[in-house]
Amino acid sequence: MNFILIVISILISVAFYTLLERKILSYIQIRKGPNKVGFMGILQPFSDTIKLFNKNLISLESMNFMLSYMTPSLSLFISICMIPIILFNFNSLIDIKHNILMFFILSSMGVYFILLIGWSSNSKYSYLGSIRSVAQMISYEVSFFMIILFIVLMSQSYSFTQMEESQKMLHFFWGNMLLFMMWLTSCLAETNRSPFDFAEGESELVSGFNVEYMGGWFALIFLAEYSNMIILSLLSTMLFFSSIKTFFMIFILLTILMLWIRGSYPRFRYDLLMVLNWKIFLPLILFISPIAMISSIWCY
C-alpha cells in the first residue's frame, strides 16, 4: 500500500514538475507560460494528460507492433522500480544491505529500452536518435557509477541507510565539490537533458528516438524521463547532503537547478560531449577520488 501511494505521488509530482519547468523557462524568456487552464495554469498538466491519452495511436506498417507497444511502458516501469530502493524519510521500502548495487542494475537497464524504442519503430531518424542517446548514456554511466563507488568507499557500505549515518557529522559535499559538479553534469547527460539533449536534434533527427510515438506512447516516455530526473535529484541529495534537516530544501533546489540549466545553456556539439567525458571527467575522477577521500577523512 505504501509503495502504491508513493508511486502515485511520484507520478503527480512529475505532472507538476513539467508545469514548473514551463513556468521557469517562460520567465527566463520574459513571458507568462501556462496560465489559462485552472487558477494560474495549475490544471495544465491534467489537461495535457487527458489530451495525450485521448489521441489515436497510429502504428506504421513498418513498425514492430509488439515491441512498439511494450517498450514505452517498460521504460516507465524501470523508473518506478527504482522507487522502493530509494529512501523516503531514510527508510527504504525494500531495506536491503546492497540497494546501491540494485540501483546500478536498474539504471543500466534503461539503456536497453531506449534502444528498443528507436529500433522497433523501423525509422532511420528514431534509430539514429536512439544510437546517439545510448552512446551518450553508456559513456556517462562510467563516470556516473565511479562517483557512486567513491561515495560507497567513503561510507564503507552499499546501503543508503549506512550512507546517511556516515554523513551525520559532515556532508560528503564538503571537500568533494568538484566531484559533485561532475556528478550533476553526468546526471544531465544520463537523463538526456539540456545542454546534452542529443537524442533530439531539430535540424537532423527531429524528436530523436521517440519521433514515431504519439499520444499515450509519448506520454509514457515523457513520464519516464521526468521521473528519472526527480529520482536522480533525490539520489544526489542522499549521496552528498544526507541530512533530515536540510534534505527537502536541497532536493527542491536541485530539481529547480536542472530546469534552470536548460534555460541558460545552448546545446553542446556531440564530439565535445564525448571529449568532456572520456578526456576530462574520467581522468579527473581517477585522479581526484583518492585525494578527495584523504581530505574528507582528515576533515572527519
Automatic annotation (TrEMBL):
E.C. designation(s): 7.1.1.2
Coiled-coil portions: none
Subcellular location: Mitochondrion inner membrane; Mitochondrion membrane
One GO BP annotation of this record: aerobic respiration
HAMAP family in the record: NDH1_NuoH
Family: Belongs to the complex I subunit 1 family.
Name this polypeptide is given: NADH-ubiquinone oxidoreductase chain 1
Name of the coding gene: ND1
